[in-house]
Structure formats: structure tokens, C-alpha cells
Amino acid sequence: MAKKGYGGGKMPGNMGNMGNMNQILKQAQKMQDNMQKMQKELEEKEFEVSVGGGAVTVKVNGKKEVLDVTMKPEVVDPDDIEMLQDLVMSAVNEALRKVDDAQVSQMNKMTGGMNIPGLF
After folding, report:
1. Residue 63 belongs to a domain
2. Taking the model in full, what pTM does it have?
3. In a domain, 21, yes or no
4. N or C: which end of the chain has fewer CB within 10 A?
């Protein structure tokens, strides 16, 4: 009577492909390490934006923290606070967009342009 089973000492199912899975896991770990290094580099980078012809300048880092805000004295008009507020808000938002653009650019370099959900 013939024995039922896997026969021939072969691994059941796709267990013979464990080497491939280990290689994939190693590649994923390397990619994760590279992404962490890239994120750290980005966090240390500084982004500067000027608006209103240089009237307001904002500097942020890759962590989206505002590092510096400078204003030319002539932009400080007590009768037009709204204009100053708009300039500051515009400069901060543009600086934060620069950080976002840098993140996307870095990620595209890492993934070769593939859109991988959940990365950024």
C-alpha cells in the first residue's frame, strides 16, 4: 500500500520558497533602514521662504518646526495688521509645502516613483 503524504522529502506547499521570502524580508529591512536615514536627513534640513518681496521670511526644518521669522520694519503697519498676518501665514504655509515636496521627492527616489500607500 502506498503511503499518502508529500513524498520525496519535499516541503509541503510553497515552503521550498522560504529562501525567496528571506530575501524579500532582507530587502524590506534595507529599504526601511534607508527610509529612516532619509527621514533623519530631511528632519535636519532647513527650508526658507520669503514673501511680499522679501518683507517676511520664514525658516522651518524638516520636522515642520518654525525656526525663524523675520520682517522688514516697513511691513509692520499698526493700521494694517491683517496684511502682516496674511504675509506671515503665506510664508509659513509655503515653507511647509516645501517640506512636503521634499518628502515626496525623497520618497520617489526611494521607491522609484511607485505609489506605496501608507508611506507618506
Report:
1. yes
2. 0.68
3. no
4. N
* Of 56, 105, 46, residue with least CA distance to 76: 56
Number of folded domains in the chain? 1
For residue 61, what are the domain limits?
Answer: 42-111
Per-residue model confidence (pLDDT) at position 114: 65
Cell of 1: 500500500
Do the domain assignments include residue 46?
Answer: yes
Question: In DSSP terms, which residues pair with 47 in a beta bridge?
Answer: 60
Q: What is the largest CA-CA distance in the chain?
A: 101
Sequence-distant (≥ 6) Cβ neighbours of residue 88 within 8 angstroms: 56, 58, 69, 71
In a domain, 101, yes or no: yes
Grid cell 525658516 in the structure block, residue: 59
- Comparing C-alpha atoms, which of 94, 33, 87 is closest to residue 60? 94
Say if CB 40 and CB 63 are below 8 A apart: no
Residue whose C-alpha is closest to residue 54's, from 34, 40, 31, 71: 71
Query: What is the percentage of the chain residues whose pLDDT exceeds 90?
Result: 51
